[in-house]
Amino acid sequence: QSVLTQPPSVSAAPGQKVTISCSGTTSNIGNNYVSWYQQVPGPAPKLLIYENNKRPSGIPDRFSGSKSGTSATLGITGLQTGDEADYYCGTWDSSLSAVVFGGGTRLTVL
Amino acid sequence: QLQLQESGSGVVKPSETLSLTCTVSGGSMNISFYYWSWIRQPPGKGLEWIANIYYTGSTHYNPSLKSRVSISVDTSKSQFSLRLSSVTAADTAVYYCARRSYTASFFPWGQGTLVTVSS
After folding, report:
1. B65-90 residue pLDDT tens
2. B104 Rama sector, left if φ>0, alpha if ψ -120 to 50, beta otherwise
3. Contacts of residue A91 in chain B, CB cutoff 8 Å?
4. Is B1 on the interface with A (CB under 8 A)?
5. Comparing C-alpha atoms, which of B82, B96, B75, B92 is closest to residue B5?
């Protein structure tokens, strides 16, 4: 059981928008920065969002991040088949004194 | 462009010690506000942070693994290493090394190396 809670799967049609939620507590999301990762089958995870809503160089603005209270959300607009992947949220947990991740969300682009 | 590459034993026997090394290229390890980390992913499962080390040698371990884990750094070789003792089948995973920011984001990542615990 992961410390951060994500839906196991989401799906949407090409061109549409999808959001992926990540729920935590005041010990983690509520008081720390959230990051998001994309993992297509095979390669290592890729950083999509850091410090709640910042995109690394090279990440298109179709990807966005937000945080409110003890939850964070990853948004993806203009869905493409290449966006099919597993998405993970992560943050620091002050109570556990550890970096924690969500269980991952499988995105299917129908 | 900073790159990380894992190397080490691909198969480890139960109760023995897993040893991995991460080689950093394209940048210095002696950099403030960044940590050098290990993360693992069991087959078909999610990510688990294992440990990180600062270039000064200061370490931080996941409490769930702390009794079995050791991380070290050799900045002269641009390498940092992981040792996990008393392994069981539950330690079978892809092990990644990555650079961690002080705000707990990981970038870049190594390509990962599969370690299988099997007799």
Report:
1. 999 999 999 999 999 999 999 999 99
2. left
3. 104
4. no
5. B96
